[in-house]
């Protein structure tokens, strides 16, 4: 038996909840619309979350991993295998004698290739999820279990290491999917919240029964005066329900500033109206407009198709830090200016940076993809530049295309511009000259970086010790060679790194 990757889509996760929000904090934003694709993706997670949490918890597995794999393998339940065979995980073989033959993609030493195989056919999705758990309850996949892996990130990596998938980027895709949609929140729940929400909804309905009866009486009175209305079925009375919330997580908190009118918006322990009981809080008295605070989570609140953005803040009170939700107008994100570019860079191995799916400080949260030190390329091309100011300092980011990762955003400090002759690093220390140091010339600039370049040998240099001090390091871009600025006889010179003992 073997698992296979069928497809991957971008995804939103919506937790099921629902009442009316205050008018001043539930206004619809024109930029907060979501596509039909995102809605069916959310519907998919809602359809499997109860059984996924139950089965995962009973089998020492991570619900987040189970849900992410189901979405990844089945295209959120839309693949032919999921629709025709209720097979969400691409498990091959047969289930109680039932199978279906389908096309599939595999990965080998020469890359991806197409083939056909028999896949298990299940009577319902529940059997598919349970069979997945049973499949992992073997010694081969023991490292995927919660009691062994410890975190969903390690579990995802162990899946690939233990041979679950042939796609080399499989674990990365799972972790991205989990982080993007806050699926990790299910790892802390032994049961889902839908029953509580349904109970809350029922209580609201019971409390409003008198109003419902009054409304029905009015309808009946109106129907006596209108014969045509008597022939029409009675319309159900719409009940007040809790709002839904869609959560977006990032890899790190983002620094934002409090807006000029932040104090008019209340703080809450949950996104407003997503639970029957949500506690309201006042702002700390020492906070002022323009103060810097950190955001670690974003939520889209929805009621009757109207969306509003909320953020979770880390606020310091004495030595402790507390988290509160607030409407988006209370905070200001850095303004990011984008422009199209066509530039070539060399990845800076001396200054590796994390790469993200969005610009860090992006108002819809940014998730770390990987460190640039792990990219198996040297040169990259950028098609987009982003500039912004954070804490008063200018930042420049580029969107680069990296083989195996696609398009990612990275801080310009992690790149070397091929249009420049050299890149310099503020670094100081001491180094010992090698025995053959005299074969390397001394320069007043890194060679090829200045038209007034002067070269000299070691004649006239009074060297009493092979240990020399330096105050700057540089890379000659064209040849990717490393140079140091050293001090000799109270003068500074540039010399190749090859002149030093290794």
What this model shows, in words?
The chain is of the alpha+beta class and 502 residues long. 23% of the residues lie in helices and 32% in strands. Strand 14 and strand 15 form a beta hairpin.
Keywords:
disordered N terminus; 502 residues; hydrolase; 7-stranded antiparallel β-sheet; alpha+beta
Give the tally of β-strands.
Answer: 24
Task: Please state the structural category.
Answer: alpha+beta
* Estimated share of beta-strand residues: 25-35%
The strand line-up of the biggest sheet is 13-12-16-15-14-11-17
Largest sheet descriptor: 7 strands, antiparallel
Radius of gyration, in Å, reads 30 Å
Give unreliable regions as ranges. Answer: 1-35, 190-230
The mean pLDDT is: 79
Distance between the termini: 51 Å
- Global shape: globular
Helix percent band: 10-25%
If helices are DSSP runs of H or I spanning 4 or more residues, what is the number of helices?
Answer: 10
Q: What's the helix and strand layout?
A:
Blueprint: E1 14-15, H1 36-58, H2 63-74, H3 80-85, E2 99-108, E3 111-120, H4 125-136, H5 146-149, H6 152-161, H7 170-181, H8 194-207, H9 209-224, H10 227-230, E4 244-258, E5 267-268, E6 280-281, E7 292-303, E8 306-317, E9 320-327, E10 331-332, E11 337-347, E12 354-356, E13 368-371, E14 379-390, E15 393-402, E16 406-411, E17 415-417, E18 422-425, E19 429-432, E20 442-443, E21 455-456, E22 467-476, E23 481-488, E24 491-496
Helix pairs in contact: 1-2, 1-4, 2-7, 6-7
